[in-house]
């Protein structure tokens, strides 16, 4: 059985992105000074895909758009945390730039999905 959100390319991209972030951060030392930030980055990267799947099961256009905004917020949170890691040299500039390129594609997909929802006719509730 396939879940409806599994048909979305943006969801697959977000899953891949979360796995990249988690893999990148798995090699980072988790001492007291950065453990909470690392866990927060892993969680926010996973929340991108989670919010996309929630959007797919929402009943109204406004709920769908809200979930897509939450997904984008999690993306921005992830990138902000990774920038902090880069500045502290917990990850390299090259690693950061690689992840940043991936994030741009996800951001673009989310914006396109939101625009599509704002232009589509009113959804009917079941």
Write a structural description:
This protein is 75% helix and 0% strand. The chain contains four helices and no strands. Helix 3 runs antiparallel to helix 4.
SSE map:
Layout: H1 9-26, H2 35-56, H3 61-87, H4 93-119
Helix pairs in contact: 1-2, 1-4, 2-3, 3-4
Sum this structure up briefly.
The chain is mostly helical.
Low-confidence stretches: none
Number of domain modules: 1
**CATH top level assignment:** Mainly Alpha
Helix-strand string: HHHH
* Overall body shape: elongated
Give me the count of strands: 0
CATH superfamily: 23S rRNA-intervening sequence
Q: What is the rounded distance between the termini?
A: 21 Å
CATH architecture: Up-down Bundle
Count of runs of 4 or more consecutive helical residues: 4
Estimate percent helicity. over 70%
Structural class: mainly alpha
Question: Proportion of β residues?
Answer: under 5%
CATH level 3 topology? de novo design (two linked rop proteins)
List key phrases describing it:
126 residues; mainly alpha; de novo design (two linked rop proteins); 0% strand
């Amino acid at each position: 059985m396939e879940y409806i959100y599994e048909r979305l390319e943006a969801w697959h991209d977000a899953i891949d992105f979360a796995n990249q972030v988690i893999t990148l951060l798995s090699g980072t030392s988790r001492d007291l000074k950065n453990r909470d930030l690392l866990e927060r980055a892993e969680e926010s990267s996973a929340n991108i895909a989670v919010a996309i799947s929630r959007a797919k099961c929402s009943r109204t256009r406004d709920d769908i758009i809200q979930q897509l905004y939450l997904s984008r917020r999690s993306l921005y949170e992830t990138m902000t945390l990774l920038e902090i890691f880069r500045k502290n040299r917990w990850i390299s500039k090259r690693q950061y730039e690689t992840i940043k390129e991936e994030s741009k594609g996800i951001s673009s997909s989310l914006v396109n999905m939101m625009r599509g929802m704002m232009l589509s006719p009113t959804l009917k509730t079941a």
